[in-house]
């Protein structure tokens, strides 16, 4: 069994993908080909925003969004320590300082209560001093494992404290929040089409979404060396463009993703829930908690498990691959040691990182495969005495 079976998906979509790719090979516009604009239009329409700008990865989407928001040395941006490093490294890359706020213990997304507490009394972990309110410029909220963070509350706080909100929707393209599509919930929203994401390309690529035309135009310049007209560079930019080939692959996959794959992922995640519910009642595991107003796209089907590391090895022996998202919270990563956060600072993130485990999931898994994973987990707990005992 594969953790995320891209070969199986290709066998289903081969005709569409090959014919899209052939067209690109024939017209030869590998940079800024017509597929890029077509994808941007289709994605803006699907998400329900005015502007979509294709870029070279989710990381580059965050970088371009922060650049367009004029983030620079001396600024502070808040994010979660329980995420992929891109959410915070892009802040640091621009010379600004990431400020971490702990997560909600059920959804693993930014805790609104802790965010409010922090904004009312912000301090710098590096020197323990209070931070001037106006130095905090924005929040990068992350939609972890496929479920949107609580944007009604986050946006309210952002408005009160005069902050921008970037929605890091790298894991939640296709999800919904209060009837709105994910990727439409921040001032700027970004996603990633890393191959294993719910909608993935065949290489790196990403997309930025916004209703703000001015910001969109700035991002379009940033992704193309700061130019609108060739060789007239108005601002500092980079090469952050989306490849035509990636756009073609994504166009070939998009229709099936919207029509079937999202619902398939949800159906299989619910099958996991049904099969594993007993183990939750026995306090061996904790199932994913999706809020009433959310529709998760289950970028990962992630549970908390007692004896997580032993369970992982047990499953490996049965050739069931699993993944740990994420084993070390960002405030304890060596790269961020200069921020001087101590162990114990973000207890929810820290505890979660020792218990979390993601199980195999993609839209093409069979019910038998999910059943086999569940039976194997049950077998593990039947033959194991829990830590507390
Ligand atoms: C939450 C989050 N943000 C950002 C990224 C970065 O995306 P990419 O790998 O396309 O650069 C990822 C990708 O794994 C992610 O999960």
Describe the structure.
- This protein has 389 residues and is α/β, with parallel strands linked by helices.
- The chain folds into two domains: 6-101 and 108-252, Type I PLP-dependent aspartate aminotransferase-like (Major domain) (Aspartate Aminotransferase, domain 2), CATH 3.40.640.10; 259-382, Aspartate Aminotransferase, domain 1.
- Helices cover 40% and strands 13% of the residues.
- The chain has eleven helices and 13 strands.
- The strands form three sheets. It has a seven-stranded mixed beta sheet with strand order 1-9-8-5-4-2-3, with helices on both faces. A three-stranded antiparallel beta sheet has the order 7-6-11, with no helix packed on it. Strands 10-12-13 form a three-stranded antiparallel beta sheet.
- The two termini are 33 Å apart.
- Pyridoxal-5'-phosphate binds at residues 57-59, 83-84, 86-87, 142, 168, 170-171, 192, 194, 204, 206.
- Pyridoxal-5'-phosphate binds next to α3 and α4.
């Amino acid at each position: 069994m594969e953790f995320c079976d891209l070969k199986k998906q290709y066998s289903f979509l081969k005709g569409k993908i090959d014919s899209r790719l052939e067209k690109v090979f024939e017209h030869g516009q590998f940079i800024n080909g017509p597929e890029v604009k077509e994808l941007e239009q289709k994605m803006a329409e699907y998400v329900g925003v005015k502007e979509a700008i294709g870029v070279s990865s989710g990381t580059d989407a965050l970088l371009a969004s922060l650049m367009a928001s004029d983030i620079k040395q001396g600024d502070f941006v808040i994010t979660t320590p329980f995420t992929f490093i891109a959410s915070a490294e892009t802040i640091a890359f621009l010379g600004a300082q990431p400020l971490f706020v702990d997560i909600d213990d059920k959804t693993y997304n930014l805790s609104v209560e802790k965010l409010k507490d922090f904004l009312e009394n912000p301090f710098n972990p590096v020197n323990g001093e209070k931070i001037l309110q106006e130095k905090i410029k924005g929040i990068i909220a992350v939609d972890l494992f496929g479920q949107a963070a609580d944007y009604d509350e986050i946006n309210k706080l952002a408005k009160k404290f005069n902050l921008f909100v970037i929605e890091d929707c790298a894991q939640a393209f296709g999800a919904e929040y209060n009837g709105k599509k994910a990727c439409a919930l921040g001032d700027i929203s970004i996603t990633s089409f890393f191959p294993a994401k719910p909608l993935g390309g065949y290489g790196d690529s990403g997309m930025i979404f916004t209703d703000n035309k001015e910001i969109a135009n700035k991002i379009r310049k940033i992704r193309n060396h700061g130019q609108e007209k060739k060789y007239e560079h108005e601002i500092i930019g980079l090469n952050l463009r989306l490849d035509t080939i990636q756009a073609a692959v994504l166009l070939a996959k998009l229709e099936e993703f919207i029509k079937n794959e999202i619902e398939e992922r949800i159906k299989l995640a619910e099958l996991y829930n049904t099969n594993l519910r007993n183990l939750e009642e026995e306090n061996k595991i904790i199932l994913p908690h999706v809020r009433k107003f959310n529709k998760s796209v289950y970028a990962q089907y992630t549970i908390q498990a007692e004896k997580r590391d032993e369970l992982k090895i047990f499953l490996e022996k049965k050739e069931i691959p699993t993944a740990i998202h994420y084993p070390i919270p960002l405030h304890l990563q060596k790269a961020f040691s200069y921020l001087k956060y101590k162990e114990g600072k973000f207890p929810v993130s820290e505890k979660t990182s020792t218990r979390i485990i993601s199980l195999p999931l993609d839209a093409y898994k069979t019910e038998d495969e999910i059943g086999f994973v569940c039976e194997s987990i049950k077998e593990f707990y039947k033959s194991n005495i829990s830590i507390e005992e």
